[in-house]
């Protein structure tokens, strides 16, 4: 079968960007002849995965796809003007090429003029010979004409010798620069791929082809922009898209998915898990070893990694669509693609956890009205018309409350002091550890400010996992009494701070353990 040497354009029309690759879809209209024929389509990105290549004809024309494959070949790179990132040698080579072309054109014009002057001198000598044969005598005029032609031939001849000398020098300098570039900046050939499609058509006519495949070197991550304006919050959802597949995506329908096609779909293998029992020793029966440890509350999502994190989709594949066609060049840089935006009423509080940080932070909460899940990602925070920093947005289901921290307040100061006392009772030999935490909160206000602010303070008490250790909150000794104590040991106070006010919050709790407990 004969293959047309000139390939048929096969542009990218739709892209589904996954977590670490992209599914590319291309469409083209083919004008088929009757019978079996092989078509050359492309060029396409050389990184396309062969085993994912799929082609189908989407019209009612009687035609069938017999074979489709990707053919790659190394081709030298075509000459292109140097850019800003190219070396001085390449810029000098380009300048010499342009100058040599101009000198060659000037040389050709001089040669043409000298040839014309030579023919003019020959015609003048023939006229002199013919006139002398007929008895004509115009010596002065013939002399002036010959002198003028000889002078012009000498002038243009000298200019031609100068131009040829300059052209020889340019050729020598250009050859030296190219030898230096071959040693220092030799560029490898470019890998170009085309699609060879073999089809069989019962009759001639147009048919629409849809071809798809996977390609690496493309990924996306969610990004957000939160604007706080009074009592409302505007949250814009964007996608940061990187791609270096070897071809630009121009005006494509972009779909963003959290599906992980690289993961295996087979269930994990079952292995035996043996449990064994053994008697405790006498020392183990006499004592109980305990220790205080920090336990982070587990949440859904991937484990944190160094560098670019994965996409936290809450354990379910999510699909987002770009509302308009987008263009993403193949430059490996991040390109921001708008996805959605919503405005919702926002409520919040000024919160502080002094054990973690002495700063009072403005926390804003609003309902997710975007119509889709908000994936975990960075968020740019804007308040009062200015950029105040960057935070992190956790995974939020549609309709659920999302929580954002809009930076700390400089007009609050929190100081934390702790005290501990240890006592042992005589009869039961129980060890009682009493811990007192005092939080000193102060507010700095501008002159004339009269508005009060409410600050939510959170502290924690240990949570016992063994019956031999008891943790008790002494509510009567706490000033003021806590507003709430949850099952995870978080104690909360709501403190109203007037302008220039100072408050002290005291937390007292006891840890008591029997004599058999060691390590407390």
Automatic annotation (TrEMBL):
Highest taxon, organism lineage: Bacteria
Regions annotated as coiled coil: 146-187
Span of domain DUF4140: 15-117
Alphabetized InterPro entries for the sequence: CHP02231, DUF4139, DUF4140
Keywords, in A-Z order: Coiled coil
Domain DUF4139: 209-513
Entry annotated with the keyword ATP-binding: no
One Pfam family hit: DUF4140
Keyword Coiled coil: yes
Membrane-spanning parts: none
NCBIfam families xrefs: mucoidy inhibitor MuiA family protein (TIGR02231)
Record's protein name: Mucoidy inhibitor MuiA family protein
Organism annotation: Streptomyces sp. R44
